[in-house]
Amino acid sequence: MRKDVKKETGSEKREPDTKQKEPAAPQLDFIRMIVKADTESGKFGGRVHTRFPPEPNGYLHIGHAKSICLNFGIAAEFDGMCNLRFDDTNPVKEEVEYVESIKRDVRWLGFNWDDREYYASDYFEQLYQAAVDLIKKGKAYVCDLSPREIKEYRGTLTEPGKDSPYRSRSVEENLDLFERMRKGEFPDGSRTLRAKIDMKSGNINMRDPVIYRILHAPHHRTGDAWCIYPLYDFAHCLSDSIEGITHSICTLEFEDHRPLYDWFLDQLGVYHPRQIEFARLNVSYTVLSKRKLIRLVEEGIVSGWDDPRMPTISGLRRRGYTPEAIRNFCDRIGVAKRDSVVDVSLLEYCVREDLNRRAPRVMAVLNPMRVVIDNYPPDAVEELEAINNPEDPGMGTRKVPFSGVLYIEREDFLENPPQQFYRLAPGREVRLRYAYFITCTGVVRDPDTGDIVELRCTYDPATRGGDAPDGRKVKSTLHWVSAAHACEAEVRLYDHLFTKADPDETAEGEDFMAYINPDSLRILHGCFVEKSLAEAPVGAFYQFERQGYFCVDPDTTRRGKLVFNRIVTLRDTWAKIQKTLAPR
Ligand code: ATP
Ligand code: MG
Q1: To 10 degrees, what angle do helices 232-242 and 258-268 make?
Q2: Is the predicted pLDDT of residue 23 greater than 90, yes or no?
Q3: Spatial CA neighbour of 481 closest among 358, 550, 386, 391
Q4: Which of 178, 304, 307, 380 is the most exposed place for a label (fewest CB within 10 A)?
């Protein structure tokens, strides 16, 4: 399917413009409009009951976050409930590890399912009885075609299918065979139970779909109790029905399955939820499919599901994204009926916006250049006052130590500066943030390589705090740390995992793996952060002044040394993109 690559958000509502004068009345998306109309008309007795139904065959990603925010969000807004249901019908690909990670991620995003934690596997007996019911009604039959034959008989989009030779088995024979399938009398793949619908239907999903298959494999919850398992389409609509779901919200690819769900529920004469489809979330420069994410993990492209470059919830969490930022993102993209790709810079905008309000500012030097201040009293140390967050005076101030030997950023000095370069250069005066004006008086070189290894400077004691009493101006302000007090740290810088905006759109004979960005991770060793970060806990986030937002990686405790992840740079590409967008 071709997707519209839009810089836009794919939504009819909301812009990341926080400066609106008055909050506009909330505009409902099409799903909320349906739900609202249903509650007003008294459909489902005015109840709203949704569910988030992950299959536990991988970790959740940002696309799932959209679905989570939608389902739990709608339930909360309409005073309803939302279930967490594991669609665990495939014992081969599912694991307890995934169940645990899903629960952790949904909780971390800020949602709560109370005691409504359900599993499709809990309904296996009910589903089996429903299948028996279909057989008794003459609406299902045991078929002995092999999987390959079933495919051949199915036909194509342009050709009708052919009836299976086993289609006219008697109800008694079907009941007997299905029971024996359950008892384990037949090997895997030898028989299936199929719905008896219409092999000539224009909708391939209706051409006698398989509803049970034989699989002698233990299940992570039911163990060896079953050797036949229901297929997703059968289990899913019935699970929704059993739980009394009112609005079964799912992604567009299930639109063509809706007639099949309707058929099952109508034939069985059971409670019928309303299904509503919306467009999946796609984000540029990444892939959002568990199947593909598993490959990145298994082939060692990333360090695991929680690698900070992964679009998984656990990866975003480790990277330093906040639940607030992710929820905000999901809110902004809204829901639509048409597939589109959301620009990753919108996600970055959302985390930047959240962290700008909340992250303490600190100084860190990632590429250090030693600076010796010749006229500073030897061995003296001063504690200078620094503001923790100019956006939030309530966050107060802290003391940063200043001394005669400092580090500044190597990029903040040029021996022969071009015209536009206002930072430090020989003979030039600049401000050190919260400290003093300094002037560069000379450089020290490595005698072998000729490289500059140290800058010699003088400071003006009258400029303490960063202002000259004589009103003298400087053109730039640099961040710095005191060499004797700073803590050494490793800093990891991330770039997009893929080099192509839509890695799913592949050329002939290629797959998405062809577009892996070889430079998506850069590790900087020997960085220095200010002393106040010495005991920073894992997950804590900061703005490193002039550099971006960073958080403490769990490797800090594992390795016993400070490791930071760059969450996002300060540069707001989204704001720039917005300017180029046509007014709406
Ligand atoms: P994947 O293709 O990544 O494996 P999936 O749809 O198979 O995704 P499920 O565990 O079945 O994964 O998904 C749980 C719920 O999340 C479903 O309701 C599904 O529609 C929704 N969902 C999955 N991916 C997205 C996405 N990219 N955008 C929005 N919703 C999604
Ligand atoms: Mg799925």
Answers
A1: 60
A2: no
A3: 386
A4: 380
Q: Is 55 in the pocket of ligand 1 (CB under 6 A)?
A: yes
Distance in angstroms (rounded) separating the CA atoms of residues 33 and 213: 39
Q: How many domains does the chain have?
A: 4
Last residue of a domain, one of 279, 306, 338: 279
- C-alpha angle 356-362-364 in degrees, rounded to nearest 5: 120
Task: Calculate how far, in angstroms, residue 55's C-alpha sits from the geometric centre of ligand 2.
Answer: 6
**pLDDT per position as a tens digit, 214-254:** 999 999 999 999 999 999 999 999 999 999 999 999 999 99
Q: Which listed ligand is nearest to 67 at the C-alpha?
A: 1
Q: 54: Cβ below 6 Å to ligand 1?
A: yes
Range of the domain at 220: 124-233
Q: What pLDDT score was predicted for residue 575?
A: 53
Cβ 361 vs Cβ 545: under 8 Å: yes
* 241 and 108 assigned to the same domain: yes
Q: Helix, strand, coil % (nearest 5) of the chain?
A: 30, 25, 45
Around Cβ 102, how many Cβ atoms within 10 Å? 22
Query: How far apart, in Å, do the first and last CA atoms of the chain sit?
Result: 27
What average pLDDT does the chain have? 93
Whether residues 221 and 143 share a domain: the answer is yes
**Cβ pair 251, 52 in contact under 8 A:** no
Residues with a catalytic annotation lie at 55, 280, 290
Determine the 3-state secondary structure of 423 from DSSP. Answer: coil
Ligand 2 (ion): which residues have CB within 5 A?
A: 55
Q: What is the pTM of this model?
A: 0.92
Ligand with an atom nearest the CA of residue 59: 1
Separation between Cα atoms, residue 240 and residue 48, nearest integer Å: 13
